Amino acid sequence: MTKEQNNNTLIIGGGIVGASLALKLAQAQLPVTLIDARPPLTQTDWEEKLSQRDARVYALSLASIGLLKDIGVWQKIAASQRKADYSQMQVWQQDGIGELRFGDDEAVVPKLLGSMVEPFVIEHVLWQRLQDDDVSDYVTVIAGQKVTDLDWLGSQAGYRVTLSSGEHIQGKLVVGADGRGSFVRRQASIALDTLDYRQTAICCAIKTEKPHLATARQAMLPTGTLALLPLADITDEDKANPQHWQSVVWTLPSNQALDILEDSDKQIAASLATACGYELGKIEQIESIASFPLTAQQADTYVRDNLALVGDAAHGVHPLAGQGLNLGLLDVIALFEILHHDWQRSGGNSWAAYSTLRRYERARRPHNSMMMHSFSAMNWLFAGEFAALRPVQQIRSEGMYRVSKIKPLMRLFAKQASGV
To answer: Residue 18: how many CA atoms within 13 Å on its side-chain side?
Structure first.
């Protein structure tokens, strides 16, 4: 049967990007339905997940933090004490001179550069916020059901969405926030450009001999990048001796990564310590070792009639700068502002016209493309056979050294990283 609702928008995908957009719309009193295929978690389920340290962490920019403040979730994240602010960034290369440091000079960057937060911490607070009285009248949450079909009914009516239960829901706008393998993108016949880096990232949580001092570190190695990102202290023991836990994202050629993953935890810890040059001393503990292949992708278009893509459904980048989620949240900010502006300008008579959606694409796709290709170029410049050539090493070293001395350029890099 068809569920008759006054739905302006159907968001498919209830992750951080999709839930954030749902809250922005609900706060503006614009009816929205959020559909997530994952079964709902009980409070006990959440407590069990949150009792463990997640090796993965998102490096939230100031722009992302600003959005989370606007929708009323950052305050709850801060109160949970499950965030690790960072005020400095250090980038260096193993095979040359030159080092980039952000945060040493308050004239170059603000004191706070961003915060590291575990995915489940953000998702938990978002889903709690969706139930609050000031937004619950405008947002309908459907969890545990997959979307099995999308039928376009014309530009005036929008889409009819079929759920795995057989239920139908109609909405003027469908937003695909359903990740890299986006069902919405495929149903809309939107092509995808993909780049396989032939690299694998090993991620884990480590406790180091020396404290991280609120510094996000990244070593540019001939095999790929190695990032050491501050983690929140979650136990009483951690809090008594703070700033020793970090999230690691170690990029390697896939065959080399697979070999390392066959080693014992102790051997992997030793290999990690050697790879980063014992920057923070010995690795005393290692947890939650996992891996994932690295690719970049970009949808040929972000919009169709009555349909838009956001976050990983639209684009995916190399993780070397930790900007994937931040780009998705910038999509949310842009899409909401453009939709809301045209809605108000029309006196509430025009929602998600194709011309409006095209403005969103023009605002976001060129920027995301530039970021994707920039990260690919950096990866190519620092890792692989070409990067190992002596002339390339010399040019790279001289370039990093010169850039580190040019404060206006450092300010520009800092501004790009913060997203503001």
So the answer is: 32
Instruction: Please give the pLDDT value at position 91.
Output: 81
Contacts of 322 (CB under 8 A, 6+ apart): 58, 59, 216, 227, 229, 249
Domain that holds residue 211: 84-118+197-295
Q: How far is CA 152 from the centre of its chain?
A: 30
Residues of the chain with pLDDT under 50: 1-6, 107-110, 386-389, 391-396, 398, 400-414, 417-419
**pLDDT, tens only, 347-401:** 988 899 999 999 999 999 999 988 876 766 665 555 555 444 454 444 445 454 4
* 174, two tokens: 């469908």
Mark 35-59 as b/e (b = at least 16 C-beta within 10 Å).
bbbeeebeeeeeeebbeebbbbbbb
Could you give the CA distance from residue 314 to residue 138 in angstroms, rounded to a whole number? 26
Q: Say if residue 352 is in the same domain as residue 211.
A: no
Q: What is the pTM of this model?
A: 0.89
The CB-side HSE value for 23 (13 A sphere, CA atoms) comes to 27
Does 201 lie in the same domain as 161?
no
Domain co-membership, 143 together with 226: no
Residues 164 and 184 in one domain: yes
